[in-house]
Amino acid sequence: MDYLGIDFGCAIGSLKKGNFPPKDCLLPLISKLLGYAIVAASTTVKLPQILKILKHRSVRGLSVVAFELEVVGYTIALAYCLHKGLPFSAYGELAFLLIQALILVAIIYYFSQPVGFSTWIRALLYCAIAPTVLSGQIDPILFEALYASQHAIFFFARVPQIWKNFSNKSTGELSFLTCLMNSGGSLVRVFTSIQEKAPTSVIMGSVLGILMNGTILSQIIIYQKPQIQKEKKAK
C-alpha cells in the first residue's frame, strides 16, 4: 500500500500478524509522515510574524538584511533539492517558506518607507537571477558552490538579527511562535534528512538552523521579560 510515496504495507502487514513493525520498516514510515507534517506546518510558519507586523504596523527591531538573505537562502536550497531530485517530503516546506519570506520582505519594505535606492537594486537583482537558479539552468559545479554558500547565507541572515536583539536588549516585533516553529522544523528535518539519505550538506543546513533559530528563540524569552515589566511600570 503506497500513498504519496509512503509505503504503509510493511507496517500494516506486521500489525495484522499481531507484531510490532520492525525498525527498518517503522523509521522510514515515521520519517515520511514527519516530512509531510513539516511541509503542512510550513504553510503557516511565518504567518504569526506577518500578522504581528500588520497588527502593530511596525517593523521595530527587525533586520531588513536578515530577511532578505533568508529569501536568497530559501531560493538556493529549494533549487538544489529540485536539482537533486529529492522526494517532496524531504524539502517541500522550502517552497512555502520562500513564498512567505517574499511576502514578509515586501511587508517590511512597505513599513520601512522610504525604501533606499540600494534596496531596489537588490530586489531587482533577485528577480532577474532567481528564475535561472530555480530552473537549474546553471553549471552543476556552480550549483554545488551556491549550495555550499547557502549555509553561510543562512548564518549571516541570522547574525544581524541576533546582534540587533543583543544591542537593543529587545526583540522588537519578532514573533515567538514563528521562531519556535522554525526551531522545531529544523530539529525534525535533521531526522527526516538522515532517513531520506539526503546529502550531508542538507543535514548540516538543518543543524545550523537549530543553532541559529534556537539562539533567536532564547533571546525572545530572555528579553521579553524585562519588556513586560517595563510596560507594567508604565501603566
Instruction: Write the element-wise H/E pattern from the N-terminal end onward.
Output: EEHHHHHHHHH
β-strand percent reads under 5%
Number of strands: 2
Oligomer: single chain
Gap between N and C termini: 61 Å
**Rg computed from alpha carbons, rounded to a whole number of angstroms:** 20 Å
Helix and strand content put the structural class at: mainly alpha
Strands side by side in the biggest sheet: 1-2
Spatial shape: globular
Instruction: Catalogue the unreliable spans.
Output: none
> What profile does the largest beta sheet have?
2 strands, antiparallel
Mean pLDDT: 82
- Roughly how much helix do the residues carry, as a percent range? over 70%
Give me the number of helical elements: 9
Q: Would you give an account of this structure?
A:
The protein has a two-stranded antiparallel sheet with strand order 1-2. The longest helix is centred in the C-terminal third of the chain and has 35 residues, at 200-234. The model has no long low-confidence stretch (mean pLDDT 82). It has 235 residues and is mainly α. β1 and β2 form a beta hairpin. The protein contains nine helices and two strands. Helices cover 76% and strands 2% of the residues. It has helices at 9-16, 23-42, 47-56, 64-84, 93-110, 117-134, 140-168, 176-195, 200-234, and strands at 2-3, 6-7.
Topology of this protein?
Blueprint: E1 2-3, E2 6-7, H1 9-16, H2 23-42, H3 47-56, H4 64-84, H5 93-110, H6 117-134, H7 140-168, H8 176-195, H9 200-234
Antiparallel strand pairs: 1-2
